[in-house]
Every structure is written in C-alpha cells, then in structure tokens.
Design goal:
21% of the residues are buried. This protein is elongated. The protein is α+β, with helices and mostly antiparallel strands and 189 residues long. The longest helix has 27 residues. The chain is built from five helices and nine strands, in the order αααβββααββββββ. It folds into two domains: 48 residues; 132 residues, Rieske [2Fe-2S] iron-sulphur domain (Rieske Iron-sulfur Protein). A hairpin with a 2-residue loop joins β2 and β3. It is 31% helix and 22% strand. The strands form three sheets. The chain has a three-stranded antiparallel β-sheet, with no helix packed on it.
C-alpha cells in the first residue's frame, strides 16, 4: 500500500496530470529526428538528379534577334530538338495569305490566327503527316504553287501562312509558344 500512495502523491504534485518525461522518451525523440534527417539527406541527391540538366534548360527557350532577317528571308533554328522556321514575309506573301478563302483549306485558319505580328511567321518545321522536314527555307528550294513549303516525303504543300493546302497532311504546321520581347526580339518557349 505504500507504493500506491507514493505514486498517487507524485501524480498529485503535477497540476496538468501529465507524467514527467523520462530520459528514455528524450532518447527516442532524438533518435527519430536524427533518422528523419539522415533519410532526407540520403534521398535528396536522388530527387535532385531528376531535375533537368543545364543544357536541357538552355534549350527550353531560345531568344532570337529578328533585326538581321531581311524581308523575304527565312531562317531555321533548333528548339527542343525540332526545326523552327522563321519567315519575314513579303507584302505579296502576306496579301496571299490574308486573301485565301477558308473554304479551300484542309485545316481552316486565318492568317491573323497564325501570326502575332503581321510580317513574321514562326512555325515548327515538321510536316504534320509523318514528321518530315518540309523544303522551302532556302532561296533555291522549291516552294510549290502556294509559295510556302513542300514536304519531300509525301508531297504535302503549305502556303505562306504555314497552312496545309494539298496532300496527306491533316493539320497546318504547328505554332511554337513564343512572344515578342521587343519589336526585334522574340523568345520561343
């Protein structure tokens, strides 16, 4: 009976009724915290290795200075492993693209839907049929009856707005995500 009364007296001395923490409780909590920290430190390199590398991040966006591209010139650059065609269209090419009736197009889209600023057409240079790279970027390349691009694989023809006009391609040349940073500088991606 002495043991019971001494335990009751120790509990009665505490106001909130909670038992006193023991050294064992402290050691368990300290060990758990150290284990959690050690696990985090061991897993972090694995998680960090899943981030894209610096060269991949560099390719995710490209800045292009449009100033050296003269009217009528087309250039090709690489973005995310795909060719991107940038065309500084002539007034004649713009007029032809704007005057094309939507009813004759396989994948109807106005010229205004395809460009952000009138003289500049920026498209991904991959045919939407089977992924070939259309010809028409170089001045010596055949551009076909619509003045745009010709797919050498299956004969799809694109106009000066990158819209498919004839052939097996079901869609227009895709548009990359881009924005104008100034009148003469764009950022693709």
């Amino acid at each position: 009976m002495d043991d019971v009364s001494s335990r009751g007296a120790a509990t009665a001395n505490r106001v909130d009724g909670a038992a006193e923490p023991k050294r064992r409780d402290f050691l368990l909590m300290a060990t758990g915290a150290a284990a959690a920290f050690g696990l985090g430190a061991a897993i972090w390199p694995l998680i960090d290795s899943m981030n894209p590398s610096a060269d991949v991040l560099a390719l995710s966006s490209v800045k292009v200075d449009l100033k050296p591209i003269v009217v009528g010139q087309r250039i090709t650059l690489k973005w995310r492993g795909q060719p991107v065609f940038i065309a500084h269209r002539t007034p004649k090419e713009i007029a032809e693209a704007e005057l094309t009736p939507l009813g004759v197009l396989i994948d109807p889209a106005t010229d205004a839907q395809r460009v952000q600023r009138t003289p500049w057409l920026i498209v991904i240079g991959v045919c939407t049929h089977l992924g070939c790279v259309p010809r028409g970027q170089r001045p010596t390349d055949p551009r076909g009856p619509y003045g745009g691009w010709l797919c050498p694989c299956h004969g799809s023809e694109y106009d000066t707005a990158g819209r498919v006009r004839r052939g097996p391609a079901p869609k227009n040349l895709y548009l990359p995500t881009y924005r104008f940073l100034s009148d003469e500088l764009i950022k693709i991606g």
